[in-house]
Amino acid sequence: FSSMEAYSSYMPYDHVLLMRTVSTPSPALILPPRSSPGVLNGSSTSSSTFGTETIAMVHTPPTSLTHPQRSLRQPRDQQGAPIDILPDHAFLQIFTHLPTNQLCRCARVCRRWYNLAWDPRLWRTIRLMGDVLHVDRALRVLTRRLCQDTPNVCLTLETVVVSGCRRLTDRGLYTVAQCCPELRRLEVAGCYNVSNEAVFEVVSRCPNLEHLDVSGCSKVTCISLTRDVSVKLSPLHGQQISIRYLDMTDCFALEDEGLHTIAAHCTQLTHLYLRRCVRLTDEGLRFLVIYCPSVRELSVSDCRFISDFGLREIAKLEGRLRYLSIAHCGRITDVGVRYIAKYCNRLRYLNARGCEGLTDHGIEHLAKNCLKLKSLDIGKCPLVSDAGLEQLALNSFNLKRLSLKSCESITGRGLQVVAANCFDLQLLNVQDCDMPLEALRFVKRHCKRCVIEHTNPAFF
Question: Domain F-box spans what residues (predicted)?
Fold first, then answer.
């Protein structure tokens, strides 16, 4: 888009009105101080600042620029830029690939671009990034403009992504909740100033919300409806939140009681990620399975209190479970893995890295029962040896990804058995394993498409 960026530089700056609402405002949302340029959606932009605080700017629609649709019969030196020849639908197609900040900049070029840039079809998504971005104000200005044709309500906006915007507060989420009833996807990963109350407000006011990412939001300990909404919906309480995808990775304060509330309200969950929610125990997983029987993907990696009893509860999901991560859950042994292997026979992905209680017996049960297994990570499992790999090779013909990183008991013999039987292997990790050069070459000969991650300097 070099020609578009060059054309946007013609915009006279005297049209900029700081924080003054006009009849048809167009916000320029990039606001890092000049001393430390910021990036929004991967694009650096200019800004106006007072001191060190960044501010949102509101612009009038361009009026002084010559209208781009000139007669083609004029002399070439008097015609507009070549890009002006494009029809409107071509511009719209180009604009769909622009991030939010660049779309706002295009709205400042000329009146035609202004009208095209604010076409409702381009505003199904708002995507903002940057530590210094005053994101609360940016969301307020954007939603105000998008609500212009439908006062107080933006019916087109379905996705808001503000991950990494550390200045986001509850105020910004309240703006989204009040103005965007059709919201379907919200990502606020790493926004640690967000609290339960704001999340409750979004969930209660956006009944179509299906995808919620609050990973790294350490103040979020629960997902629930607001108290007023819960009372109003009784006795259907617990069945009104349509969230299917929920990521609460690094929500350190989440406990069993909070997971109980989440499960009771979000009964349609299919994807749940609880990585490093270190306070969870087996009891919380029991509540999850009771209320959310449709879970297909589940991660409890680094939840150190999860044990074989928790896996026994997870196994009640049976054939619905496709993805399971129990990495670094030190209390899990062959007993828990046996429950998973017996009842979750449609499992496709298992990450058991760092489960030091896992042995060849657990791998054998897994290989003989989960015949559709495609990805397995048993790195840092010192009790898994060549015997376990042989059982895996003789049964798991669909295996495509295998990680054996730092497995001390595995030798080249086990690796050769895997290579001779798992022809579709695409990724093999044997880093920090004492693997002879001949074994690595054997894998390369039998698994042509396999990428081998290794630490043997003699193998290329």
Answer: 80-126
